[in-house]
């Protein structure tokens, strides 16, 4: 609280970030289910009964800590945020399995609409490059669906199409597809698969679905408290193997907690070092407009850049990562522009780059954007010249403040340093180095 009070005196809010997260690359393997239990885990050959249930108790404990963070924000920095990581609230192996299932469902949609579009030269596309802009009419749906699934009658097929076509316009769009098919129902769907492919193997079994519901209960408990105390919650982005599950969960929470509200309560995080991220931002905004809830986002360039590129190469996949820092910056700025251009949205621009901050301010002036819709965030101890200048001039400025046990916080900060090591040569960081150098010379040499 004393640190939050110091920030408030300087016109700066706080983002409290408890250092509880899983670590990419440190997850134990899940054993394959034995033949005796294959039928009960149909479509899910990895059994949830082999998950570590001690981890569930740890997730319950983390949920209480995140609730404390919400209370602390309310007491110490009411205009601030509580940041939470879903890998601290559910087994990350489950998040990875969920993500695989969701990605395979997205690939299935693309295959149904255009059977030749799912690969580039035989190399599988990552999740963020799957084409979600295609539309599926009934004739195409019928022809493609029967290639993959056994169907008893055309009446059954037509009923399935109409159930997904929630707009009743004889077309299925991706947003209808993704919200109509529940994770808990995919296991039943894959029992009709003609071939046991990736989707069949990705479907969750009954115990995994229960673990999923346990995690959702923790998330809802935190968000319900945040709603009661009027504290905004920011869901952090994590690595690509679990991010689709995080996006899925956050979107459903936004539909509930950001509805019938003057301002968004739940903010998702968009990492713009991923190719095609502006398209995702636009799809989510359009969904919020159709469904009548407030869109809230944190936009970052992103972490995990080096490790994600290496993983894609090892797996023989197209890299999901932008090729250059300049391409990432263009993606970052496009996403910001898209959000600023739409009313009833809020954004936290998370950057240490002065040019990006100035560009955002210029865009706000061009579009006559209410400054209350836009916040700027930097890590505590970095880019102070940006944060305090913004705060002094009346803009919503925030410091990201990690906290927790020493044995968790120090490794957490080391990981943040490692993840951001690839941008240490970026213009913003070079500028800050030069400023620090000039100040050291001034204090030591007097000029």
Structure described in brief:
The protein is an alpha/beta fold and 447 residues long. It has helices at 2-9, 54-76, 92-113, 138-148, 154-164, 174-180, 183-190, 198-202, 206-229, 243-257, 277-291, 305-315, 325-340, 354-367, 384-392, 406-419, 427-445, and strands spanning 12-18, 81-84, 119-120, 123-124, 136-137, 171-172, 232-235, 266-271, 295-300, 345-350, 374-379, 396-403.
Report Rg.
Answer: 23 Å
The tally of helices reads: 17
Global geometry? globular
Distance between the termini: 37 Å
Helical content, roughly? 40-55%
Mean model confidence by pLDDT: 85
The count of β-strands is: 12
Structural class: alpha/beta
H and E order = HEHEHEEEHHEHHHHEHEHEHHEHEHEHH
The major sheet is characterized as: 8 strands, parallel, barrel
How would you sum up this structure, described in words?
The chain is α/β, with parallel strands linked by helices and 447 residues long. The chain is built from 17 helices and twelve strands. It has helices at 2-9, 54-76, 92-113, 138-148, 154-164, 174-180, 183-190, 198-202, 206-229, 243-257, 277-291, 305-315, 325-340, 354-367, 384-392, 406-419, 427-445; strands at 12-18, 81-84, 119-120, 123-124, 136-137, 171-172, 232-235, 266-271, 295-300, 345-350, 374-379, 396-403. The strands form three sheets. Strands 1-2-7-8-9-10-11-12 form an eight-stranded parallel barrel, surrounded by eight helices. A two-stranded antiparallel sheet has the order 3-4. The protein starts with a helix and ends with a helix. Residues 26-53 have low confidence and may be disordered.
């Amino acid at each position: 609280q004393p640190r939050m009070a110091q920030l408030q005196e300087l016109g700066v809010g706080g983002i409290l970030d408890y250092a509880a997260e899983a670590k990419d690359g440190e997850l134990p393997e899940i054993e394959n289910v034995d033949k005796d239990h294959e039928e009960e885990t149909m479509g899910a050959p990895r059994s949830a009964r082999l998950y570590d249930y001690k981890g569930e108790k740890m997730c319950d404990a983390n949920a209480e800590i995140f609730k404390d963070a919400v209370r602390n924000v309310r007491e110490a920095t009411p205009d601030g945020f509580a940041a939470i990581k879903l890998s601290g609230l559910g087994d990350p192996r489950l998040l990875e399995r969920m993500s695989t299932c969701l990605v395979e469902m997205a690939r299935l949609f693309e295959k149904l609409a255009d059977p030749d579009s799912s690969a580039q030269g035989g190399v599988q596309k990552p999740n963020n490059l799957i084409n979600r802009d295609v539309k599926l009419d009934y004739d195409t749906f019928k022809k493609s669906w029967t290639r993959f699934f056994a169907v008893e009658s055309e009446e059954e097929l037509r009923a399935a199409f109409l159930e997904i076509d929630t707009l009743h316009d004889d077309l299925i769009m991706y947003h209808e597809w993704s919200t109509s098919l529940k994770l808990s129902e995919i296991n039943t769907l894959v029992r009709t698969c003609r071939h046991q492919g990736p989707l069949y193997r990705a479907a969750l079994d009954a115990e995994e679905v229960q673990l999923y519901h346990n995690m959702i209960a923790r998330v809802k408990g935190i968000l319900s408290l945040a709603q009661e105390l009027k504290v905004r919650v920011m869901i952090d982005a994590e690595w690509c193997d679990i991010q689709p599950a995080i996006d899925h969960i956050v979107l459903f929470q936004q539909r509930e907690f950001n509805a019938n509200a003057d301002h968004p309560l739940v903010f998702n995080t968009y990492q713009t070092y991923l190719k095609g991220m502006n398209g995702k931002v636009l799809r989510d905004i359009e969904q919020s407009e159709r469904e009548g809830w407030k869109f809230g986002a944190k936009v970052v360039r992103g972490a995990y850049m080096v490790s994600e590129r290496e993983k894609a190469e090892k797996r023989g996949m197209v890299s999901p990562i932008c090729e250059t820092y300049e391409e990432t910056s263009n993606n970052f700025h496009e996403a910001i522009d898209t959000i600023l251009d739409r009313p009833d949205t809020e954004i936290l621009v998370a950057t240490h780059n002065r040019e990006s901050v100035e560009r955002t301010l210029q865009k706000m002036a061009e579009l006559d954007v209410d400054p209350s819709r836009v916040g700027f965030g930097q890590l505590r101890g970095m880019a102070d010249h940006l944060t305090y200048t913004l705060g002094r001039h009346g803009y919503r400025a925030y410091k990201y403040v990690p906290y927790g046990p020493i044995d968790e916080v120090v490794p957490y900060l080391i990981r943040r340093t490692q993840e951001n090591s690839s941008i240490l040569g970026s213009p913003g960081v070079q500028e800050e180095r030069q400023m620090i150098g000039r100040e050291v010379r001034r204090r030591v040499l007097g000029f």
